[in-house]
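Researcher: Go.
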Amino acid sequence: MTTSLKLRKGFSFDEAILMTTLSKYAYDVFQYDDGSVDDVELKTVYQALYKNQGWQLVHTIRNDQVNTRGLILKNTQSGVAHQYAIAFRGSAGIDKGAVNLDNVVSDVDWKLIDYGSLSVQRAKVVRGFHLAFESVADEIQCFFRTLRGELKSADLRYLHDLPPLRKFACITAMIDAGAILLGTEFDKQTQDLIAKVLADGEVDNDEELEKIFQFVEEELVSKQSPLTEPIEVWSTGHSLGGSMSELAALALRRWFGSAASGGLLIKVYAIAACKIGNQAFVDFYNQQIGAELSYRIENTLDNIPTIPLNPPLPISAIAPEGLQIGNIFLGEYVNGGEAITVTGFGSGQSASISFGGLFSIPFSVPFPHSPETYIELLGDQKKYWNELARPVKDVLRPFLIELLDDEQKKDVNTSSVNSDEDITIIK
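Model: Structure:
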């Protein structure tokens, strides 16, 4: 897996394949979820599955009430000190053998609602996707505010007013970010405090939580200093997770400002994402994220990126702002960023038919929406473009080698570069 990355403008197949793979990890890891809010075991599972991939799981994002899940991963093999990916899981229809419809509610809640207090009052976001992200926005903000050295005592007072489970999620986010800054000793001390909170099976012990708050205030708030290194963040996800990845990137921009003003460097790869709002909202999103920093990967044979569905004529002409019939809302919807399309069914999803436990017949089902299909199709398209460009490279190679030789002759003090090295660079 490519780990030596630097966040730059422009589309990259390597980045797209990597981010789709990390989005798949968000499904894979939570299959081992035991239902506990303490996700230490999931970090152990992740380490066992992907220890050689170069990305460390530093925080699990979760809200059990709406079944929102995600991972914050740190690149441990990059030349950049602080390089992260936020990978959101999409809809999970089956959870440990039981049908789970929590995400389905988010998927079909298509009503367009106001987004904050924007000066453009016409800008509307899809409520289901917005609420799904907002359910975990507090812990994501806590993580990056801590990482940037911007945590304040006022933030801790605000957390006191949250419901117990959200309070606990934000505490673990601060601790996980603090462990990156302060090391293993801090992490061990805080894990001991968390174990005491969870000892009785409940998370509403104010006395134990207060001890964690005091420790965080003493070790983080009082001793922190603003982070001088830039923080690079890829925001990604598949399906519903792809829509949340766009909203997460927009929230990070709003919280921390633009990269030019000292904010985070943010880039989005939304995989098979649903539409996130109306045109005015998407215009705001695109302006905030910036050109060539937000991409959505769409399979032309996959219907999910076409939802929410736009109303047909004459409804769209009669009700341009949308039409609500009972709990169903129809409106004009758009997705953010720049579309990169692939086409194909992929190799299919693995399945099998069992005959009384005696034997089973494996087979595959075409599934153009799966992360595996997107990874395969992106790989095929990367190979296609590389092969298409190779004849051009072969034609240009002699001219580029000659150009480099001329540059060498102009400056005898420069280090010599032989032709073999030039050819390697040009490939």
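Model: The longest helix spans residues 371-410.
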